[in-house]
Amino acid sequence: MDNKLLLIILDGVPYRNFRRLFGNLEGWVASGEARVWKHRAVLPSISASCYASIHTGVAPAEHGSTGNGNVFRLKHKDVFSQVRAGGGVTGAVAHSFWSEFFNRHPFDYVRDIEYDEPDSKTINHGRFHTMTGYGAANQMTPSDVDLFATLTNLCLRFGLNYGMLHTCTLDSMGHRFYHDCHEMDHACAVMDEMLAPFIPKWRAAGYEVIVTADHGQDDRGHHGGRGELQQDTALYYFGPAEGPRPDSVIDQLQLAPTILHRLGAPVANTMKEMSFLS
Questions:
Q1: Residue 179: is its pLDDT beyond 90?
Q2: CA 80 to CA 229: how far, in whole Å?
Q3: Which has the closest alpha carbon to 92: 162, 195, 33?
Q4: What pTM was estimated for this model as a whole?
Q5: How many angstroms separate the CA atoms of 139 and 176, rounded?
Q6: pLDDT tens digits along 64-107
Q7: What is the dihedral of CA 73, 262, 268, 40, to 10 degrees?
Q8: DSSP secondary structure, the chain, as one string
C-alpha cells in the first residue's frame, strides 16, 4: 500500500464553531488548499456510538454500541482491519474506547496504554489515554499538542499508511462551559493554533488529511439526540481528490468507505454508503 491518510477527530465541535473559530482551517479553505463540508453524525449522536460508526460504516442500531456505557469489541469489519487486509500499517492516538472497540476489551491500563504490534490485524501502533476521573471539575484530558506530536512520531517511526487521532478536549470544555462563552471561543482558537503547524508537516510527508468531529454540541453542552447543533459538524479535507458540491452534507457512514477508497484498501461489504471523495 502506497497511499497514506490521517483522520483527525476533534470530539464535540458543532459546525458553527468550526466555521467561526478555526481561523487556520478556514484560511486554508479560503486559499483553496482545503475543502470543507457539513458532516452529520449518526443517531444517537453520542461519542462511543459515533466512534464505532465512523470506523465500521454502520449505524449504532447495527453495531450495537448505544452509548458511552456500552463499549465492547466490535464484530464488524472496520477501517483498521481493512487497511491491514490491504497490506497497510495502522496507528491510533486516542481515547481508550478506540482500543476496546477495535483491538481488545476490556482495556488494561498497563498492557494497552501503549503498544506496538506489527502482526496485529487491526491497530499496529497504539497510544491511548483513559481520562479516568473525568468530571466537570477536572477534565483529565492530555494537551492536544502532545497528541499531535505523538501521531507525528508514529508516522515517522513506523511509516503509517493510516493514522487516527482523537482528542476529547473541546467536548469536555463544551460540557463544562457550554458553547456561547469566552472559554469555548478561546479553547477552539487554541486547538486551531496547536493543530495548524502539523498539517503542513503531514502533507509534506505524503498524507491526505481529514479534520472533523464525531458530533456537535448544543447550547447547553448536550449531544446524543437529533438536531443541527447536536449532529452537525464540519469536515475539512486536504488532498488531491475531487469531492461533492460545497453545499453537500456528508453522512457519517460515508467516512469508512471513503478512507478505504483513498488508501486503496478493500471496502467491507457491510459498508453500504458511497465514498464522498474520488
A1: no
A2: 29
A3: 162
A4: 0.98
A5: 9
A6: 999 999 999 999 999 999 999 999 999 999 999 999 999 999 99
A7: 70
A8: ----EEEEEESS--HHHHHHH-HHHHHHHHHTS-EEEEEE--SS--HHHHHHHHHH-S-HHHH---STT------S--HHHHHHHTT--EEEEEEHHHHHHHT-SSPPTTTSSEEE-TT-SS-SEEEEE--TT-BTTB-----HHHHHHHHHHHHHHH--SEEEEEE-HHHHHHHHH-SSSHHHHHHHHHHHHHHTTHHHHHHHTT-EEEEE-S----TTS--SSSSHHHHEEEEEEESS-----TT-EEEGGGHHHHHHHHHTPPPPTT--SPPS--
CA separation, residue 83 to residues 33, 45, 87, 262 (Å) = 26, 26, 6, 11
Query: Whose CA is closest to 14, among 59, 45, 58?
Result: 45
Grid coordinates 477495535 are at which residue? 102
